Amino acid sequence: IFKREDDLDVEDVAEDMREAVEGNLQLKRMLSGSSDAEPAAKKQKLSSGAAAPAPLQPLEFEKQQLLDRWNLKHDRAARYVIQAASLEEVRKIARSGWRPMPFTQGHDGRDGKTPAEQMYLKVLNAREEGICPGGEFDAVSAFKKKWNLSLEDVKILKGLNHKDLRHVMKEFDGQRSVEELVEEASMVMPNEDCDVTEEAAAEKPGLLTMSRFNRLELIDPNADALVIGDANLTFAVCLAAHREALGHVGRIVATTFETIEILRERYAEIDQTVKDLEDKNCEVLHNVDGTRLAVDPRFQGMQGKFGAVYYNFPHAGVIQGFFDGHPFVRWRHENLMHLFFRALRGFVKPGGLVKVASNSNATGVRYSDIVVGAQNSEFAHAETLPFNDWQLRNYNRSYGDRRDANRRPGEKEIYRNQRGNSDMVYTFRYEPTGDNPPKAIIRRPPTKDDLLRSSEGKMRGMGAVQKTNRAQEIYELFLSYVQGVHIG
């Protein structure tokens, strides 16, 4: 069993907090095993001495049938995509009559999408049909989606004042009707001497007031706040100033994924930034993997302490030669979100908020990874608000990699295929039921054979030796990420 320096042994962690770490262990075992689809299979040798293709695990009938129909049964990348898809997703695609187009060079000189990439987008679209859209989504819409409410219920909820809307949302469990709870709420008198933030502005319009709470970041003043992956720590500075201005007494734990040595190479001002935060009684921790909090000894004693958690523009790291959305590398981004939310379960207090800022059109960490990852770990979707409406938007964004040493994203500089008005803040509330949630979704990586026997990304056109070397480099990067070591 692998671990980073100073990590606790998994056996020393409470059983109900192990799953996120065990997810990383599972990925590590996948990556460290055979490069073949079947780890126990012995490689046969061709007369040339090269390894023969390893025996492949048989696909379910409907998946194999679809590959055969598309003449892609020998395409290892296409096989990888369809193997990871659910039968429901495969059936949706089969019923649609859609089929991938052959790979072609674009008129502008850029490569088109391979059949595997086209299939993957189709699978993702089928997967996202059942969840909320990626753009702005108000609190009542999120509540309607969670409980599958009628349009009449939505109309009633939108007409309630703040006190009554909070009451209905808190007490609704699917057993009593919205009308019953509205009548009950009307009998509850407003607390004139409220000392709980959410009890303020009781008679104001409910939906508007709740939206203002999230936009103005009116969080629990007494609870601690956790910031994950804040590369240059400027978001933590912004949050600290905000909480100080509001008179909050809860502390801030600000973390970076990188070590302080790497940060000093990228940000000349980092030591001063750390000092400024510590002067405001913030705790600053480096080399923190947000999916492995349970085995990080620095987080011992923080269980159930956090009333607010922030993770802005999460990304699992770049793999040169592949776009973020390519199926051979995107599994890392999806797993990041599922394991992040699973790791938080032991550290967020019931009712605590988690906010993840991301672009609704991002192709690495997709909005659906955030929403499904949260809901799968009992973090209910509370609202999606535009990033530009958020009180904490004015921090100094960074790339979070070696590019920051020479340049930073300016106000007019954007990532390819993304726009500032598509940046969103996905907001969730921790609502544990006391039952065990479903297992965290873990997407398996491609095998080395999948990489070697495909023509995907920049590996297209490589010679055998170059391709073998690049596959090994990619696998080493994969291993570093699941071990919480960032290279980039």
Tell me the structural class: alpha/beta
Strand content: 5-15%
N to C succession of SSEs: HHHHHHHHHHEHEHHEEHEHEEHH
On the 0 to 100 scale, the average pLDDT is: 88
Number of strands: 7
The count of helical stretches stands at 17
- Measured as a percent range, the helix fraction is 25-40%
Q: Provide the spatial order of strands within the biggest beta sheet.
A: 3-2-1-4-5-7-6
**Alpha carbon gyration radius:** 24 Å
Terminal residue distance: 25 Å
Low-confidence stretches: 34-50, 414-418
Largest sheet: 7 strands, mixed
From the spread of the alpha carbons, the general shape counts as globular
What does this structure look like?
- The structure is a single chain.
- Helix 1 packs antiparallel against helix 14.
- The chain is an alpha/beta fold and 488 residues long.
- It is 38% helix and 10% strand.
- It is globular.
- The two termini are 25 Å apart.
- It has a 7-stranded mixed sheet, sandwiched between helices.
- Strand 4, helix 14 and strand 5 form a beta-alpha-beta unit.
Keywords:
38% helix; 488 residues; 17 helices; 7 strands; globular; 7-stranded mixed beta sheet; alpha/beta
